[in-house]
Amino acid sequence: MKKISMIAVMSAFVSVTAFAGSGTMANNANNNMMEVMTVEQVRGLADNSPVIIRGYLLRQNGENSYVFQDTTGTINLEIDEEGWGGLTVSTNDYVEVWGEVDKNGASMIEVDVSSIKKL
Q1: The domain that contains 71 carries what CATH number?
Q2: What is the pLDDT of residues 61-78, one digit of tens each?
Q3: In this structure, is residue 1 part of a structural domain?
Q4: Phi and psi of 46, rounded to 5°?
Q5: DSSP one-letter code for 57
């Protein structure tokens, strides 16, 4: 299980950059190009929609559950061992997350993460 260092949680709130949702494109290992979205944009998408978001992991919320933040808000991420790919992340690390929207009812929205990387 990956743990997130809780140092500088407050600095993550202050230092979130404005790159997410700015029309920036991202390319994954399979050479797929997609636009980077904001948490706010992700919340408006349909279930199973592919997404890329950039920001910070604030804390671990459960065994595979994490809280992610960008300039527009927070959302829960579900990250299993395959999604981590051996990566260790702290709250100071600006990350790019690839995954898909998982809607469990009207109010429960999270992102099932397929990969994460430090930027």
Answers
A1: 2.40.50.200
A2: 999 999 999 999 999 999
A3: no
A4: -75, 160
A5: E
Domain total in the chain? 1
Q: CB of 109 within 8 A of CB of 75? A: yes
> Is 4 within the bounds of a domain?
no
Whether 3 is in a domain gets the answer no
- pTM recorded for the entire structure: 0.76
Closest C-alpha among 64, 69, 56 to residue 95 = 56
**CA atoms lying within 13 Å on the CB side of residue 76:** 14
Degrees, nearest 5: CA angle 101-106-110: 30
pLDDT at residue 34, as a whole number = 84
pLDDT class for 31, splitting at 50, 70, 90?
Answer: low
User: Structural domain of residue 84, as residue ranges?
Assistant: 9-118
